[in-house]
Amino acid sequence: MTDLAGSLIILLGAIFLFSAGLGVLRMPDAFTRIQAGTKATTLGNILVLAGLAILHPDWALKLLLVIGFVLMTNPVSSHALSRAAWLIRTPTAPSTGADALAAHEAGERLAREPDPDEDGGPPR
Known about the structure:
Number of strands: 0
Shape: elongated
Largest sheet: none
Number of domains: 1
Radius of gyration: 22 Å
Number of helices: 4
Low-confidence stretches: none
Order of helices and strands: HHHH
């Protein structure tokens, strides 16, 4: 019975990994590709590793450590890739939506620069 459960969990993980590959191929721009690849591969890898832990209980501790490593590194790597793509001004598809980071950066820039119309500006 545990063989069947472990095999089904591995199969489910493989389906998620396959859907991640399809998402990377079909998404319109770099940011959505990174998102599709990261979310599905994280879950797919965890399911495959959990299925292996069920099939081979003596490996469970090592596989749990690998699951923790995947949970820590996948989001960090996708953030680094997305940030690098944003910094080099990678174009986005029109369907991607608003660039919230650009609006945030512009707001911080305005907050740092003094307004010349206020008291600290040059006299008129």
